[in-house]
Amino acid sequence: MSFRLRRSVTAYLMLLPTLVLIGVFVVYPIVDSFIISFYKWDMLSANKPFVGLQNYVYIFEDPLFHTALKNTVLYVVFFVPIVLALGLLTAVLLNAKIRLLPLFRTAFFIPYVTSLAATGIVWQWIFNDQFGLLNYFLERAGLHPQDWLNDPRWTLFNIITIGVWQNLGYVAVIFLAGLQNISREYYEAADVDGATPWQKFARITLPLLSPTTYFLLILTTIEAFKVFLQIYVLYGETAGPNNSGMTLLYYMFTKGFGDYRMGYACASAYVLFLIVFVFTLAQMALSRRVHYEA
């Protein structure tokens, strides 16, 4: 056996435990769920009649799926730009030389590593219409309090607020890493030319931060399509009043573990995958505008 072959065999043997785990817990569930999407199965019976594409047809005929798709798209459209803009603003502020900077960085990152299920009670209290903190500030400002949890008009607002709160720290930390990788020579040259702070931000910071922004754009978009926990924490199994908080992932959860229509739920999971895949391809077209520092 040659040295190159022995080295390859050794490498694959070292990778084998990881490959086995990936195969058992990632590849096999993906393939099996795709197969199940062509069957009618309630998880309780061994009988699984083959229905072909019927599950996929029913999905697009279901009005509740249209509601879930609309709510998910609205969530993505609002959540992604808001969390990116606030994350960049936070990163710029944290990048400044201020006292207790490590403490502020930790404070912003804590929501991302804190279980949302554990903080759900706090958010229910904040949005409570009787003694909630949000209505308290509205009354102090002379404004009319709102029924945040029972009014369908505020459902998406509530979900987006919690989503931004939870992910802001992570986005800010990634932006902060990108800011600290920009060479100070660019700013020193701009100072010599008499550039204003806004000109330096628009002509230096934003272009050189484009790889980080592009990475976060794809990441937060995928994360937005998977919105589920915020809804479950606030509304439980109701998905908000009049299904105003129904999203694609919540729809899949309801069909699979509420109605026990596992084949239908698997089909809806692959519809969600296809939608995310199309959005990701569209975002990849923006890669030509990404400026990588030489």
From TrEMBL:
Keyword Transport: yes
The entry's keywords: Cell membrane, Membrane, Sugar transport, Transmembrane, Transmembrane helix, Transport
Principal location listed in the UniProt entry: membrane
CDD domains on file: TM_PBP2
Transmembrane regions: 12-31, 73-94, 106-126, 156-179, 213-235, 262-282
One cellular component term from this protein's GO annotations in UniProt: plasma membrane
Any Pfam family: BPD_transp_1
Keyword Membrane belongs to the record: yes
Species in which this protein is naturally found: Alicyclobacillus macrosporangiidus
Topology in membrane: Multi-pass membrane protein
GO BP annotations, alphabetical order: transmembrane transport
Residue ranges of every copy of the ABC transmembrane type-1 domain listed in the record: 69-283
Subcellular compartments: Cell membrane
Name assigned to this protein: Multiple sugar transport system permease protein
Family the entry assigns: Belongs to the binding-protein-dependent transport system permease family.
Gene3D superfamilies noted in UniProt: MetI-like (1.10.3720.10)
